[in-house]
Amino acid sequence: MSEALNGMAEAKAAKRRSPLADFFIRLVKEKRLGTLGGIIVLIMLLTGIFADLTWLGMPDVGLAPYGYNEHNLKDRMDAPSAKHLLGTDSLGRDLFSRVIYGARISMIVGICASAINVVFSSIIGVTSGYLGGRVDMVVQRFVDAALSFPMLIIVITLMGIIGTGIFQTVIVLGIWGGIGWIRVARAAVISIRENVYVEAAKSIGCTTGEMLRRHILPNIAPLLIIMFSISMSGNILGEASLSFLGFGIPPPFPSWGGMLSSEGRRYMYEAPWLALWPGVALSVAVYGINMWGDAVRDLLDPRLRGGVGRYGRATKKIREKISQKGQAGA
Amino acid sequence: MRNYVIRRLALMVPTLFVITIVVFLSIRLIPGSAVEMMAIEMGSRESTGGQMDVAAVEKMLGMDVPLHIQYLRWVGGLVRGDFGTSLWLKRPVLPQIVARLPVTFELGLLAFIISQCIALPIGLFSAIRQDSVGDFFGRSFAIISLSIPGFWLGTMIMVFPAIWWGWAPPLNLIRFTEDTMGNLRQFIIPGALMGMAMSATTMRMLRTTMLEVLRQDYIRTAWAKGMRERVIVIRHAMRNAMIPVITMIAGQIPIMIGGSVIMEQIFALPGMGRLFLDSINRRDYPFVSGINILLASFGLVLILLVDLSYAYLDPRIRYK
């Protein structure tokens, strides 16, 4: 009797796992590639943070053996060796250190721009979707107009006007990239607004502020996390493309995209490693973030909840049955 | 349907207004120091020896009258096909832009064709043979080509064949009318790179929608009727699965224009993307705003066409 009760208590405890723990358990169990992506993101993040420890007052300690702008004219254009793992560029800067510092820039841009994406698009999208009517109409026309521009062209235009730099890149990618998500946030709010509990809350005199805070925001929270994860790879690639074309983060800062164009393309025949490694780092980072973002979406999207994986397995059986039927018919 | 078309067309007017405002204001945002810098640059360019004064540059940019008059003048010009005069070339902007269009258009068309040739068969196969080895490779290919930035792959294609085999892409434009094969050889690599990047999204989308459709009741009915797999997949499933995919493919066209900016830069193709980058580097703002306005209007029309075709294909939308 007591054993059975214990068992039930255990089952209950297991069911009442915190959502966060549940998320990670499901991630590891169901999304192998997503887990790999998460690990890659974590490594990139740690690499960025510990490239050096200047922020702790210890500029000499860190993962990067040299500074990102440490000229060493004796060792210019060195091929990869034990001293310079990935070789050096035309100013004798150690490529390995610069790739490590590049992770810091990519992570700063990726995280900050995505955070702005989420905050900006959810504020505008939620207001416009919740209020509806004329406000919504006006906001939607602005969104339509903004989405008519090819993203890269308008972003380059804005960067050309306000000037290059890490702060400018984050702001432009954050705001302009957020516009596309306004529609997503708005659509989510409109579907939530239709629920009976919103009507009930209204009828007991809930104010608009309370309504947004207590009923709307908690319901779109998973969506915001999904937005953040998915927009991050776009922002990192966007920064790299901008820097590659010379409109993102100016030299000497070691942006992966910028390293490809300023040093990599100029000396690509004499020192191909200069063009190779920043791109490899960028590809791996974007791959990891894509995988992570996909897994987060699959695990959190209410429409997909219950797991695409489980559904897929069920349908495989169905498919086998179907193909048996097909063969029988043929 | 007619009411829907009219409503959509009416909604385009305020959107177009906002587009012109955005472009107009972004040019007005140029900080004063930039205008001064332009004055210095242009002074030296005119070889007058001295500097041009700021007022003259402002007059040239049409910045010497109140804001709303500037705006009206500018929009009036746009309507008449006058996109302004280049600060650098001293010639009207529009014909220059139009002259650069064929290169970008050809690149885009090639990329589009290549992308569909990759995406549709693989996406379809991935869906009807879910979890097979082919499905695994197809999806891996999609994920990898989503992650590798085109500008890096393009640079690699410039570098390693040159080092290993001494091969390098031509640096001058080979015209289609003069040497068709040479022209295609020149365009095929940047086109393929762009197409590959685009195909990944299409492939993944087609796979998802196909999987959804293949679980519908009418597909089971079709199997039960004893129809052949080919007929079911092509005629029953794919037709329905393609509707959202088509929307997405059309939505990719503006992204493709962005991609062509990068590819034209890497492979030295004199298209509109090159012109755009050159103009913005020279601070030739009439070009910049002209290209932006043209592309945004194009994007707007594209969105409209997609929505109309969507409404045409799916009656639920037009009666909402």
What keyword list fits this structure?
heterodimer, A: 330 residues, mainly alpha, 12 helices, globular, B: 320 residues, 0% strand, flat
Beta-strand percentage of chain B?
A: under 5%
Sheet/helix structural class of chain A: mainly alpha
Q: What overall geometry of chain A do the principal axes of the alpha carbons give?
A: globular
Share of β-strand residues of chain A: under 5%
Topology, number of strands of chain A: 0
Give the topology string of chain B: H per helix, E per strand: HHHHHHHHHHHHH
Instruction: Give the largest chain-chain interface (CB within 8 Å).
Output: A-B, 56 and 62 residues
- The helix fraction of chain A, in percent, is over 70%
Q: Low-confidence runs of chain B (pLDDT<50, min 5 residues)?
A: none
Calculate the mean pLDDT score of chain A and round it: 81
Describe what this molecule looks like in 3D.
The complex is a heterodimer of chains A (330) and B (320). Chain A has 330 residues and is mainly alpha-helical. Helix content of chain A is 74%, strand content 0%. Chain A is built from twelve helices and no strands. The longest helix of chain A has 38 residues, at 208-245. Chain A is globular. Residues 304-314 of chain A have low confidence and may be disordered. Chain B has 320 residues and is mostly helical. Helices cover 79% and strands 0% of the residues of chain B. Chain B is built from 13 helices and no strands. In chain B, helix 5 (93-128) runs antiparallel to helix 6 and helix 11 (272-281) packs antiparallel against helix 12. The model of chain B has no long low-confidence stretch (mean pLDDT 82).
